[in-house]
Each structure stands twice: as C-alpha cells, then as structure tokens.
Amino acid sequence: MSAPRLSVDRERCIGAGMCAMTAPDVFDQDPDDGLVILLDAGPPTADRAAARMAAGVCPSGAITLHEPEPGGS
Fold first, then answer.
1. What does the alpha-carbon distance between residue 49 and residue 22 come to, in Å, rounded to a whole number?
2. Closest to 42 (Cα-Cα) out of 1, 2, 9
3. In the list 20, 28, 61, 63, which could disulfide-bond 55, CB 3.0-4.6 Å?
C-alpha cells in the first residue's frame, strides 16, 4: 500500500502558520511572504498524524492530503 501524499496551494494560503506549528518537519513558512512551504510531500510514518492534523486545521484549506486508494499500490 502506498503512503499518503500532500500538496499545497500557495495561492490559497493566508500565512496563518498553523501547518508549520503543527507539523514542523513537513511544513515551513516562506520568510519573504509567510506562505506555506511543503518540505515533504510524502512524510514518514512518524510525521503522518501531524501532517493530517495540519491539513485539518489549515484555515484556508490550502493543504490537501491525498490518501491512496484502498487495495491500490
């Protein structure tokens, strides 16, 4: 089974920083504009719960978690 993948939409991002605070090994903020930077689109198992939470708390919905299809590879 393949791992979940993340994507971000910097145009939707409002720079709240919830992602970087929730999952600092997966997300950061651009020092110039404050927008999200995705550090790891396929985070290791240890960071997946935090990445899921970060996607859920993003106030602008700029983070998408792509779950693998059941039974897919």
1. 10
2. 2
3. 63
